[in-house]
């Protein structure tokens, strides 16, 4: 999930400017995407204990991908002016992905027993940082220019879907568990 988020966050201003938006308009859309994320974090805190980490993470990850792919479709279909639906999809992505990210951090740390939690989460976080450092470069240098925006978000979104399916099949739910 973080891979897709950082690729989108890094490149959306350029994507929007290439679509014809001025610097200020591109900043307003991406700034709105980031600002609405604060509400997403609050929603995450309110629902994660009731609905469960796996469910919240799985649903919000898939919805984030759908919103981002939808935004790409509407961006590429727009002539010069970015449509309301494209802007709403981008801002919606910012909200939903910020429900997923705090849930992800909570969930991953709880998968490790207490004696290994610091090093286990540290290892997972380091691997994530490396991937999220490489992803925007691959996205901007190869995928988006060669494959186009929609296909790029579909392919990166498929990685998220595969991760969600694997989590659903292989990982345990930690909500309500006593941490050992």
TrEMBL record:
It is found in: Cell membrane. The chain crosses the membrane at residues 26-48, 55-75, 87-108, 120-144, 150-171. Pfam families: MFS_1. It comes from the Bacteria. Residues 1-175 form the Major facilitator superfamily (MFS) profile domain. One of its GO terms (cellular component) is plasma membrane. Its main location: membrane. Keywords: Membrane, Transmembrane, Transmembrane helix, Transport. One of its GO terms (molecular function) is transmembrane transporter activity. It is a multi-pass membrane protein. This is MFS family permease.
């Amino acid at each position: 999930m973080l891979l897709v988020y950082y690729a989108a966050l890094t490149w959306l201003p350029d994507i929007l400017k290439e679509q014809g938006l001025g610097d200020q308009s591109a900043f307003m859309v991406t700034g709105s995407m980031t600002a609405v994320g604060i509400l997403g974090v609050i929603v995450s805190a309110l629902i994660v204990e009731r609905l469960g980490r796996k469910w919240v993470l799985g649903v919000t990850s898939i919805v984030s991908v759908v919103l981002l792919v939808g935004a790409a479709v509407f961006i590429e279909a727009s002539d010069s002016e970015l449509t309301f639906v494209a802007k709403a999809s981008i801002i919606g992505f910012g909200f939903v992905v910020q429900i997923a990210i705090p849930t992800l951090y909570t969930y991953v740390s709880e998968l490790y027993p207490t004696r290994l939690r610091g090093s286990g989460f540290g290892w997972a976080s380091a691997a994530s940082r490396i991937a999220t450092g490489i992803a925007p470069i691959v996205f901007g240098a190869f995928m988006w220019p060669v494959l186009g925006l929609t296909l790029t978000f579909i392919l990166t979104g498929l990685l998220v879907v595969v991760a969600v399916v694997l989590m659903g099949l292989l990982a345990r739910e930690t909500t309500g568990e006593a941490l050992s």
